[in-house]
Design goal:
seven-stranded mixed β-sheet, 656 residues, alpha/beta
Amino acid sequence: MTSQVSSPSDQADESGGTRQAGEAVVGEQRGGPGQRGTEKEVRRLDRVIIRFAGDSGDGMQLTGDRFTSETASFGNDLSTLPNFPAEIRAPAGTLPGVSSFQLHFADHDILTPGDAPNVLVAMNPAALKANIGDVPRGSEIIVNTDEFAKRAMAKVGYETSPLEDGSLDGYRVHPVPLTTLTIEALKDFGLSRKEAERSKNMFALGLLSWMYHRPTEGTEKFLRQKFARKPEIAEANVAAFRAGWNFGETTEDFAVSYEVAPATKAFPTGTYRNISGNLALAYGLIAASRQADLPLYLGSYPITPASDILHELSRHKNFGVRTFQAEDEIAGIGAALGAAFGGSLAVTTTSGPGVALKSETIGLAVSLELPLLIVDIQRGGPSTGLPTKTEQADLLQAMYGRNGEAPVPVVAPRTPADCFDAALEAARIALTYRTPVFLLSDGYLANGSEPWRIPDLDELPDLGVRFATGPNHTLDDGTEVFWPYKRDPKTLARPWALPGTPGLEHRIGGIEKQDGTGNISYDPANHDFMVRTRQAKVDGIDVPDLEVDDPSAAARTLVLGWGSTYGPITAAVRRLRTAGESIAQAHLRHLNPFPKNLGDVLKRYDKVVVPEMNLGQLATLIRAKYLVDAHSYNQVNGMPFKAEQLATALKEAIHD
């Protein structure tokens, strides 16, 4: 879904809950799927946070995704947070089985999925109990009353019905028999009760689409395409969707609907689409292969939350993409490294447990000095840990998780859309310096989404490479030979020789090579030289200087982040500045090597605070390299930081 934006602006901020008041328009005439118009109050808001929650079989991810797509096509800025169980089908009606999807959309620039929902759609008692703690008093709660039977409530610890015992008196509760209304709407379709019940998520989507004036044509088209082989199911879902819309139009319980205008002032001019981090990363890899004029090869083994990249790239054979689903993680990276030797832009995708299995082959790639992208979509650990939850705890593994001195550059995107640019940057480094490169995304970025401006081709970097074509060294006797480890004096990269090229035969393997010739060498002095040279190559990678956001130039505290903490940190910093506090912010894309000016930046501030979704891994690196007493602020609960939480912590740091 794409939309055109043509009003650039330099004013964009996340309000942090202070801008939600809106003017009301009373008696506006509306028409929808049923083409009935009723006079109801319409209130204009500048932002809304909605959370859909239900059983893992209730289709909450699909519902949230469809609402997001229509919101993107309408032109709002948005940020999403899907949250689902690790089990394929968790026990029905239980707290561990609750699946949710949170969407924050606005008429201005926003940075996070929001701290707390303004609207909660709870499909059963488990969904209500699991999420009510996040819902502020005064918010709206739409409850599927059909699911609040005694047994279902007892399963999650409700002794009495929360709909009747007064515990929800502080909220604006809308009791809606979603299941009954859906079955009634579909009674003429000849479906069984169970089949009809499955469409209740579409009824809820129709109701929320009416409530927030979302477009409907795209969802109806999507349903007909999704169920093209079962047209009766497609039409049943469309009917349920329309029934939800019409219910909002006609019921007295929903006397107010809301409008959130498009964010026309938040974006530069261009064509936009909604994109998730994994999709943006896949597109970035394809773009990198085209800009390098190299075939793209992915050797991978499915693992949450990285599998979507494999799924997406497998659809693009027309761009010269080849995907190989291996029997295990080791085979996946082995095939990818072989493709790199053969002249492809080679990639392997995984998460933390897979990185552990791939470590020996990553070390081989360091020794062979071949370009290879290792994409790590981080998740909660250790071991299997929390496979569907987010974390940033693989940084030290990416830096040091191999035997011997095996330095690897590390790049980290900061937002879902930024995964596209980070993939291009990782490819640039790998191809220019002939080295494996880590790209550290995480589950929050991978599954979350936001608007992305589709770049013009002339904006993309030139990643063209030159393969070795003949001898590159002259011996003392005048003989011209090929030395596979004769280096570029600027980048220290060795030549990339395609196998089968006459005269360029050379040894490969994990045993140490002699400088220049590439012959096997056990000489201690040569090993020392090669280890230091590989380290110098990584240390010498050209990365941009770190940019610091310090508008007052009076801040004494710097908040330093990396990866997906960018949104919450920036939102928190904006809140503090709005409240009159002075604070500086910087965000690292390159974690190895660090930007050359990082040391000077750190010395300019009395206090450095590093928020991370781990126990202080970047802070450890900062302390060790720059001897700066960096203060860690850490969270490892599987969820991203909340802006208000960070703002409170940073304010305490400023005044400590």
